[in-house]
Write a structure and sequence with these properties.
By secondary structure, the chain is an alpha/beta fold. About 45% of the residues lie in helices and about 15% in strands. Helix 3 links the parallel strand 4 and strand 5.
Length: about 300
Amino acid sequence: MSDRSDRLAGLQRSSDRKVPPDWTGDILLFDIDKTYLDTQFSNWRGLLRIPLEFALDKEAVPGAAPLIRALRRGPGPRSALVPLYFVSGSPLELRSVIERKMTLDGVEFDGITFKDQLGLAKQWRFSAIKAQVGYKLRALLLYALELPRGARWLCFGDDVESDAEVFALFGEVVAGLRGTALDERLQERSVETADRARVCSLADELGPARADPVLRIFIRRTREKEGPDLQRPQVVPTPTFLGAALVLRAMGRINDGAVAAVADDLRTRHVPEAVLAEEVQSAGERFGVPSEILALARR
C-alpha cells in the first residue's frame, strides 16, 4: 500500500493496488463531492460540522452507487475488479466517514485522495481551499505515474468544480502538453504559482508523450445550461446517472442488469419519470444509444 501525505501541497492520498504494467483496460476515476456523495463542506459552517458527522449521515447521489458497483464488476459473469480511484475536494478529516459510507454502499476502491483544507487554512492559503484545478490535476498525474501507460481512463465528475476541464486537461498533459505551454494554461485558470510548479514537474516525470488516455468524461449536470467544457466530443453530460449508464452499456462496460439497477435506484429516490424519459431520449438522439438498450431503462 502507498499512502503519501503532502501537507504543504494540501493533498493526502492512498494507492492500495499494484495494477499489472501490461494492463490495457479501463481505469475508473470518480470525483466524490456532488458526484458520488451529496457533500456540504464549501463553507466554514460545513467544515465545523465534520467532527459530528457519521457515515449514515452521508447520502449517495441517486444512481451513483449501483453504477460504480457495476463498473467495478464489469459486464461479464465474473467480477473484473476494474481499477477504481477517487479524487475528492472533501477535507481529509472526512476520510474515515466517507470510507465507511463506501463500505455501507458496497463500493470497493483501490485509491483515494483528499484535500487538506484545514492544513491549507493554517498556511493562510485560503484561496487554495476552494480552488480545484491545480489540486485535482496533481492528484490525477500522481495516479498516472503509478498506473499502466496503456490504460484507458473513464472519468466521472460534476459541473460544480470544473471537472470536465480538469479531466480533459489531464489527457492533454499525458499526450504531451508540457513546460511553458502548460504553465500558461494553468495561469489562465488562476492556478497558484506553487501548484503550477508541481503540476509542471509531475508532467515532466510522465516521460515521452503518448496517446490521450481519457476515453470518456461523464459529468453529472446540476445547472440548466451547459458550458463549453461540456460540449467537448468526449464529454457525456447527464442530469442523472441513467444517461451515463445507457452510454456505458452501449460501450460494453456494464450489463443489462446494471442499467435496470440504476433506473430502479433513481425511481426509489423519487426522481421524476419525466426526467428519466428525457435522459433516455437524449441518450438515443445525442449519443446514439440503440433502442434495445434504451428500453432497459423504461418501466
